[in-house]
Amino acid sequence: MSKRIAALMLTMILVLTVALVGCSKKMEPKEAATTAATQATTMKSYAMSSKFTINELSFTSPEAQSDPSMDMALNMLKNAEMTVDGVYQLDPMQTEMTVGIHLKGDMAMDFTIPMVLTQDKMYVKIPSIPFFPMPEGIVGKFLELDPKELAEQTGEEFNPAAMDQAKAQQLSNEVINAIMAEYDASYFTDIDPKDAALPEGIDAKQVVQFKVTNDNFQAAATTFVNKALPKVLDIMSKDEYAGLMQIEKSEIEDLKSELASNSSEVTTGIEEAKKYLKVNQFDLNTAINKDNFPVYQSLNAKLDFNDPETKQNVKLSVTGSGQYTKINEKQTFAIGIPSGDQVVTMDQLQEQMSKAGY
Asked: Where along the sequence do coiled-coil regions lie (predicted)?
């Protein structure tokens, strides 16, 4: 893949990042989106459900035409879905979620991966995967991962501050406000909740749409890179987040210097990408309830990239949605914290894998 496509993909990710953070009187759209994004970081508990679907994905180039593996990979990803359903509480820290991978096409398959996170450990249920069979003795058990032990094994020092969820929420709040401040009101519009295709049961006082088009794509990407990102780096360098980020101030300063010295090159790259990129649709709708929590979000994106020089063409269409319920209520954990013979350690996993010939 050419550098031009790589630069485009990075730009698309940056714009997507900006969109995703945006999300009882009725406020102005930008104010409502900013308030909802900030309010989301104050949630002490919630249940959530999300889905991301690749509706269309194609890549053509002179090289790809002679590579059958490319068609196979694209066919597998077309209409692929990823789902995440889970429950979260801040105190005591406990999260459980089930990630579902659903592949379509000639190699259709479905598998789910339940996970549990606590203040100091993570548990991942070992799935049965058709193309990568696991030893029968460990399938269905939870692999226990201890960040402290993993740090010791790699020769690094474990920092408990990295697990501070309250501090992480504070950091998220600052970052969101810094990014949103750089975007003017023209990116945000109100949508009548009746026209927003909200799922049944969603009670929204307001729906705000963040929209990127062909006309404002270049400005949105340039604003993120040249204005918002430097402010985000400034926030990350604060002493209060040193333990959480586990990044040296000198490293952040190096990033800022590199960003500043390459700003003109980045801007030129975005301008160049604009020549080949067509944003057919990029909308993120955020439904906000009476307490200003973002209770539902939906994303629709359709992008085309065509390079006449290399004859490389990419077409991508994705949809996504996420819903929060039971906000700040007492949660029910269906999985609980695995224990006893439900659990295998990393050493036990490696032993079983070795016996199976892996």
From this structure: 238-265
Is the model's pTM score more than 0.70?
A: yes
pLDDT tens by residue, 186-201:
999 999 999 999 998 8
Handedness of CA 272, 276, 277, 280 (dihedral sign): positive
Q: Of the candidates 267, 210, 258, 256, which has an alpha carbon nearest to the alpha carbon of residue 233?
A: 256
Question: What's the CA gap between 305 and 8, in Å, rounded?
Answer: 9
Which of 88-123 are b and which e, b meaning 16 or more Cβ less than 10 Å from the residue's Cβ?
bbbeeebbbbbbeebbbeeeeeeeeebbbbeeebbb
Give Cα separations from 55 to 81, 108, 143 (angstroms): 9, 15, 33
Instruction: Specify whether the CB–CB gap between 8 and 276 falls below 8 A.
Output: yes
What is the domain extent for residue 39?
3-355
Domain count within the chain: 1
**What is the C-alpha to C-alpha distance for residues 126 and 351, in angstroms, rounded to an integer?**
15
